[in-house]
Each structure stands twice: as structure tokens, then as C-alpha cells.
Amino acid sequence: SLASSVFRREETHTHTRAHTTTDKKMPAEPALSKRPSNSRFKQQKLPAWRPILTPRTVLPTFFATGIVFLAVGIALLTASNSVKEVVINYTHCTQTGTSNSCADLITAANNQFVNTSATAVCVCDFNVTLDKGFDNDDVYVYYALENYYQNHRRYVKSRWDPQLHGLDIRGGPDCDPLRTDDAGFPFAPCGLVANSFFNDTIEMFKCVAGDCTTNKVTLRGDGIAWSSDRDTKFRNPDFTNPGFAGTVKPRSWPVTIDKVGVASADPKVAWTPAYGSSGVGYENEDFIVWMRTAALPNFRKLYRKIQGQSLPDGLYRFKIQYQYPVTQFSGEKKIVLTTLSWMGGRNPFLGACYIVVACVCLLVGVLFVIFQKQKGRQLGDARFLKWDRD
């Protein structure tokens, strides 16, 4: 019949389509490359310890932490208090033989960081009585600057480490804005950090029978820089090939870099063996100490060491070649004489922090004990369970 004929044709057509579809290969399912393996570790099925916080475990932790922190804080505070320290502010010291402030004279002469004027030479001296009992202790002499932001982003970035390592004497883009002079010659060293190199000089004399000019205290400048900086980060280029040829001194320096650490008759050059400076060029330790920028606006940098000689109590005279201006930015300059303890210099803040944390832990522990005694309950008490009966 006509209906059966149509049904047979439709069945044949459907079979043909199914056969054709079956013959085509289905695309392979992509592998899941980021799927972790079915291991106990990657599936986070390893046994785990889940502590249950109870008064019996929490309270001893508070008391133990408080006791340990209290002991450490007392030790740190005791070590800090054992450090002997004398701080001398000489920002506004007066020129020797006059009543003029050296700060005013230097500011009037030039606004640069380092004194390059032939006339603006200011020497001030003053007497200081030491009564800290330094005696035969090793004493470290620091210069301290206040309100001096060495951590300013542009200031910190303005240097070129390959140049300081002796690899590229011409400097790089980070040196800006002090990369080259007006004639295109590169500064060596370049950048703001090097240009503002501290150059006051400090001399110290012991007053004996009214004589405060003869008995000079030896201030040593060797070993004041970090050994990692001295041995790794700062290197002079080969002085013969080509050395510092084709470079010029920074704008605020009185001499070129190859004259730093070399004897000089110019009294304005602070970095000479006459003042205890050690090392030549980029390897000069005064320069290395300065190039390690400070993180805070008030900082100290090691200037000299007094070792192997007695520094008894008494009257001392300090003679300062005053050249570094700080009053333009309301800064201050200080001399710091200090000893060291097993934890370093004087730093009462760290010990005080430990003691404060210890007191807080002990106080919280005591409050928890009182609360547990007054309103404590048994762990897992079924009376405190609430059930939804709706």
C-alpha cells in the first residue's frame, strides 16, 4: 500500500543517516591538565589535628607567652640601658674666635650640600665634659642628621649601581637629574645621593692641665662600612683602562672621585687620611656608609671608631670643620659617642614593646581565669543545646 511504501522509504532514509553518523569519528574529549591526581594529599584527605580550644589549653598559652615575652623584654631593656651614650648638638656652633654662627656663614656663602667656596670655611670648637665612664670601652662616633629625608623616592632612586661597582663609568638613566653636566660629561659618581655626601670633619682632643690642643684622640675610619658593601657592592674601575677618564666630579664636590681618600692640602676636603678616612674612590668607607640610605628622617651614620685607647672621664675639646648645611630644611646635626651591647646600640623601644605585649597577655590570662571561675561551664554541657522542634 501507499502508507507501507512511505514507511519503508522513511525507515531506509533514517538507517542511512544513522549509518553515516556512526561512521564519522567523534572528536576526542580534551584532557583535564589541571585536574589534581586522586591522592590523599592533593585531595586533602590526610589525617589532621583540629585542636579544641578549652580554658585548660588557652590559659596556659597566654601565661607562657607573657612570661617568655617579659623575660626577653627585660633582657633587651637591660642591654639597652647598659649602653653608654653622649649626644652633642652642634647645629648652631659659633665660629672660633667670633660670635658668628657657622650655619649662617655657610648658608650665606652657598646653598650646595658641600662647601666649594674659597672663603666659606668655618671652624668651630667647643668643650664637652664626659662622665659616662667610657674608660677602656670601644667607643663609636656617629654623626646624626635630623629632618633629613633620605627615604624620598626620587632621592633613593637617583644612583647607578653598575657605576659604583666599576662596570659602567658613564652612569645610567636612574642617575637623573644629575647624570651629566652641561657639556655632556657624566658625573662620577652620579645622582642625588652621591652629590649630597656628608663632609663635616670631627676631631677630638683630651684636655690635660688646660691644654686642649695637643692630646689628640685617634679616630679610626677603617671597618666602619658593612663588609657586604665594602667587599661586593663598591669597586673602582681599572684606573689605567680607562679609569675615571672622561668623567667629572659631582656639582657639590670639591674634588673628583679619584681624589677621595687621598691626602690633600685643601682643608675643605673632608675625606682624607688626615681625618681618618679609609679607602680610595668608590671604595672609600665614608662614601660607602653614606650611600646606604636611611629609612627614617632622623638617622645616624658611623663616622669613626675609638679602639685600643683609653677614654677616661674628663674635659674634651671637639674641633669641627663645619661645611654641611642643614638649616635650610630645618635640620640638625649631632655628634654621638656610644658603646655597644650584645644587641647593638641603645634601643629601648624594642624591649618596651616586648614588655607591653607580655603585660597584655598576662592581663588577658588573669581576666579569663576570673571569668572562668565566676561564669564558667562544663565543656559539652547538653543543657546549653537548643533544638528546632518546629
List its salient traits.
single chain, 390 residues, four-stranded antiparallel beta sheet, extended
Description:
The strands form two sheets. The protein has a four-stranded antiparallel sheet with strand order 1-8-3-6. Strands 2-7-4-5 form a four-stranded antiparallel sheet. Helix content is 29%, strand content 15%. The chain is of the alpha+beta class. 26% of the residues are buried. Helix 2 (55-81) packs antiparallel against helix 9 (348-375). It starts with a helix and ends in a 15-residue tail after the last helix. A hairpin with a 2-residue loop joins strand 4 (201-208) and strand 5 (211-216).
Q: Summary?
A:
29% of the residues lie in helices and 15% in strands.
Element pattern in H and E: HHEHEEHHHEEHHEEEH
Q: What is the makeup of the main sheet?
A: 4 strands, antiparallel
**Content of β-strand:** 15-25%
Strand order of the largest sheet: 1-8-3-6
Q: Look at the structure and give the mean pLDDT.
A: 84
What's the shape? extended
Radius of gyration: 37 Å
For the terminal residues, how far apart are their CA atoms? Answer: 69 Å
- State the low-pLDDT regions, or none: 1-22, 114-119
Helix content: 25-40%
Query: Could you tell me the number of beta strands?
Result: 8
